[in-house]
Amino acid sequence: MADRVELYFLPPSHYCVSVERMLAYKGVRPKIIYAPYNDRSDLLERTGQDYVPTLMWNGKAVTWQEIPSFLDRVRPEHSLVPPGQEGLAQTLENWGHQVLEERVWRAVVTQVPKVLRTDPERWVFEEMQSRARGPWSVLKARRPEFVRDLMEYFGFVEAMVRGRDWMLDAPSLADFGIYGGLSPWLTVGEKIPSRFPSLRAWVARVAAI
Length: 209
Hints:
Helix content: 55-70%
Mean pLDDT: 97
CATH topology of the largest domain: Glutathione S-transferase Yfyf (Class Pi), Chain A, domain 2
Number of helices: 9
Distance between the termini: 25 Å
Number of domains: 2
Shape: flat
Order of helices and strands: EHEHEEHHHHHHH
Low-confidence stretches: none
CATH class of the largest domain: Mainly Alpha
Number of strands: 4
CATH architecture of the largest domain: Up-down Bundle
Strand content: 5-15%
Largest sheet: 4 strands, mixed
Strand order of the largest sheet: 2-1-3-4
Radius of gyration: 17 Å
């Protein structure tokens, strides 16, 4: 019997995009369940928590921290952590989510409401982000500065993949973490600038998995 797999997913979430690419690499095509920014009642009822991504595997909830190791257990082919490169893969994944993503998020946060589905969801998003990051009008005014800062980090990733297909010897946590970290830029409809040709090619490879 085929496994029943569902993924609670919010498109602007870097962790959600990262996990979706991991699942694709493992050959798993989950049922995608949209998890609105402002309403996780269904997820909360099913799992007792409301954080996304959450993977439902044959009715069992797997939260985001556990998903990579869980996938390597249930689908051991195409390991997410290459033998002998575990520390490097995990460090690069962490950098993608904790460092790169913060630069990306500052550059796109005021663009995110256009990819949300309802006015209440957009209102709650803007309110919560304003509380965390300051007035919305200031965030909009500073966007050119944030975009300029982000280009330096795109340059770092360009250097990482120049002359190679993947961050390590094969697709791994490193690729999916860094791709997830930059994914909000793509989600809001931005393109990777042409001055980063290796990065653009790598993004296309990860997206095509």
